[in-house]
Structure formats: structure tokens, C-alpha cells
Amino acid sequence: MLKYKISGPPTQQRPYEARTGKSFETRLRFVIKEEINKTRKKDGWLFNWKTEYLVPGHQVYKLTIENDDEIQGLISIEPIKNQQYIEMHLIEVAPSNFGSGKRFSGVAGNLVAFACKTSFDMGFDGFVAFTAKTKLINHYIQTLGAQPIYNRDRMGIFTPEAKKLVNSYYKSYFDVR
Prior knowledge:
CATH topology: Aminopeptidase
Strand content: 25-35%
Helix content: 10-25%
Distance between the termini: 20 Å
Largest sheet: 8 strands, mixed
CATH class: Alpha Beta
Radius of gyration: 15 Å
Oligomer: single chain
């Protein structure tokens, strides 16, 4: 179980309660089957997390507020050990954190920082790769420091940008390395 703080309103890109700016302790943990079964399209989730959860090698994590089991966001990652990077298959904020009436801001950035941190933890120098939806490519370039690789929709987050993201959410991570 991983812990970090959602805080805000930020000078750095960090999640916070959109309405009040109040910060909360949060946790990142593996999601379990019973929780995945509650992430339905009819409830506003865009991706089929039940299918993603069953894919061999994919690790699905949830972000929750401390002492609250409500999922604020999900991420599916896979370590590609022979090429030394983390593949980010899916990422999604909870329906309550999407749009102008969102409860928490910055959840997606926090999940991406977790993927980068996992890459550093595994000795992959923070490298994360993913396939972007075309309309979000510029957003990923501007907010995550991602760069197009191989073709227009294939993107990577390299060591310098990964360090910036990890430093934004895990303040003392590089102090002990």
C-alpha cells in the first residue's frame, strides 16, 4: 500500500478538492474484483475495467482517500522488463472527478506520477510509454511533458519529465535514493 497526500490549491501540479482546496491523505493500492465490478459504464466510467482487470500482466491500481473506500481514479500498468519501461494501458478518473463539477482535481496527474515512480522503483529510470487518444496528445505534452515516439499517438515520458512528476507527488522520493 502506498500513501501520499492530495494537497492544494497547488503551486505545483497536485490534486486537491476542487470546491474547497482542502487536502487529504490518499492511498494507491491494487484494486480487487469486487471493486472493479462497481466501475460500470452506466455509472459514468468510460472504460471497461472488468476486462482490463482480467488481462494477464496488467496491474490495476486504485487511488482512494484515506479512510474512504470510494475510488477516485484507476490506472492499469504493465512492467515491460525486457525493454525496461512501464506500459500505461489505461488511466481514468472517477466520474465524480471529471468535468467542471469535479470533486478532486489532479487525480490523473497523480496516477501518472505513480506509474513513473514505479518505473524508477524497478530500475527503469522513470520511463513510461502509452498510446494516446489523438485529441489529448497536446494536453499530455503540456501537462506531463510526454513526447511523441515512433508515431504520432505513441508517447513516452522520459527521465527528466518523470522526475518532475514524481517530485510533485512524492516529495522525499529522491532524497533517499
